[in-house]
Write a structure and sequence with these properties.
Layout: H1 14-36, H2 40-67, H3 73-97, H4 101-121
């Protein structure tokens, strides 16, 4: 497991932090399947589960930021839209080309980088709201 929760990712909102921990767990699961082999069916289920969970999480997080009148609320929503568009493009690529080591590696790098950067730059600002 290469992706561990740390208190530096805390937003001050227990539910959002728990949802972020679930996303970290998805990334650990992806890492495990990359190391041990990922079937076409597993990747399809993973993409579906992560996509659904992420959309639900984004809605909740955006609502919390609006309620708290957080200064980064609109920036957060824009970043979420960009991630969803990039994730949809990755899903289309997967549907077109299927599973490959290259696809899985790019997916892992993209999701990990995006999640850590987004949490550290945007989400943690919820603490100050």
């Amino acid at each position: 497991m290469g992706f561990q929760w740390d208190d530096k990712y805390s937003t001050g909102n227990i539910e959002i932090d728990n949802q972020h921990k679930q996303i970290f767990a998805y990334l650990d699961e992806l890492e495990e399947h990359i190391e041990n082999g990922a079937s076409q069916e597993w990747v399809e289920q993973f993409m579906s589960a992560v996509g659904l969970f992420t959309r639900s999480h984004f809605c909740y997080e955006e609502m919390c930021m609006r309620k708290a009148k957080c200064a980064v609320a609109s920036q957060n929503k824009i970043q979420h839209s960009k991630l969803l568009a990039a994730f949809a493009a990755a899903k289309k690529r997967f549907e077109r080309d299927g599973v490959s080591d290259e696809f899985l590696d790019q997916l892992r790098k993209f999701l990990t980088s995006w999640l850590v950067n987004h949490i550290m730059k945007i989400d943690v600002q919820l603490k100050n709201c």
